[in-house]
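DATA SHEET
Item: assembly model
Revision: 1
Owner: S.N.
Input lines:
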Amino acid sequence: MSKRAAYHHGDLKAALVESALALIAERGVAALSVAEVARRTEVSSGAPYRHFPSRQALLVAAATTAARNLTARFEATCPWTGLPGSDPVANLGASAAVYTLFTAEHGFGLDLIFAAELRGDSDEDLLDAGRAVMEPPLQAALSITGGDAKAALNLVERAFAAAHGYATLWRSGLYADRQATVDDAAADAAATARILARAIQNP
Amino acid sequence: MSKRAAYHHGDLKAALVESALALIAERGVAALSVAEVARRTEVSSGAPYRHFPSRQALLVAAATTAARNLTARFEATCPWTGLPGSDPVANLGASAAVYTLFTAEHGFGLDLIFAAELRGDSDEDLLDAGRAVMEPPLQAALSITGGDAKAALNLVERAFAAAHGYATLWRSGLYADRQATVDDAAADAAATARILARAIQNP
DNA sequence: GTCTATACTAGGATAGAC
DNA sequence: GTCTATCCTAGTATAGAC
């Protein structure tokens, strides 16, 4: 029996999201096409529309899944922030490294998760995932600023702007001359985050 | 006489590049299309191909023009780096702010100017423009590191990764909740650059 | 040097068969 | 719930008229 005839998905919807994430990782958000996703999932070009009404809806689903993965990675990275003996500066640095790796590999990060165009649909799942995602690094930042919420938000913004920049510039090939790997970019992002954190502690 | 019949460009090529930059600024690099550029320049869809053999060539020309503009803006921002009495930390901060403004407004920055896909064509103009663009901030960084070239490159990378991140995250609408303007993002980028510079001076 | 016209490709989305 | 077939839109690029 042929490949396609054999294809009985228990969960085509999830498989489509996986293919979409892989396609975005390879070619970027702009290159996401429902037709190509269908091809990679080995279903017909019309099949995805039974699960997603539009390309946009598929993109929202992919961003939501990715946001949840990112949250999980953050939680795994700094699970003990706030407990005595933990090092919040190290945790924030580790979060920045995680974010750079995530964004460089996925081809998107907070830019898509919080993109106005996607959130405008009042998509509750993505809104919830977006709300949750920055909690772990914010907790680390709050430890660093001694509970000052405004300063903590500022620190997180700084650290993650830098981490986002490293990821996107690495992805564009800017550091390719130096044969820098994505891990080098992540290490640089972590070092930058630690410098920024220490500057807040000792103004 | 009709609009189009009246259109006699002294320099259609330059006008096409201008339209391309405006289109990218509005809708992003991915949305650049020769057809739309022709429409905006009020020429036929075939006309651009007399000046650019492909969409890619038009993109290279736009990136080259933008790179030269950015260099000029850098030079205007910190013209006195190295002279006695100048403040290289302030100059680096100002460069970061300029870069954030430039990138947020144009929809691209170093990512496109140094993009491997565009430079692969051995396009000499773009290569030259790319080589020149980072010179002013590098001079400021060299003043800060006391002539240590490696540390200066590192500092510039850090400062501009952060500036790039602020620009792209601002462009994605991430800070829209807070009603932050692009000038706020640029000010944040400058502050971050100054913190990173001071951390190098007092390790 | 620009215009019109056209060949070709690709994707978004829908309808109806099974 | 998936497939096939189709419509429509949009873009890249070329050819030949003027």
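QC remark: Chain B touches chain A at residues 28, 30-31, 110-112, 114-117, 157-158, 160-166, 168-169, 171-174, 176, 188-189, 192, 195-196, 198-199 (CB under 8 Å).
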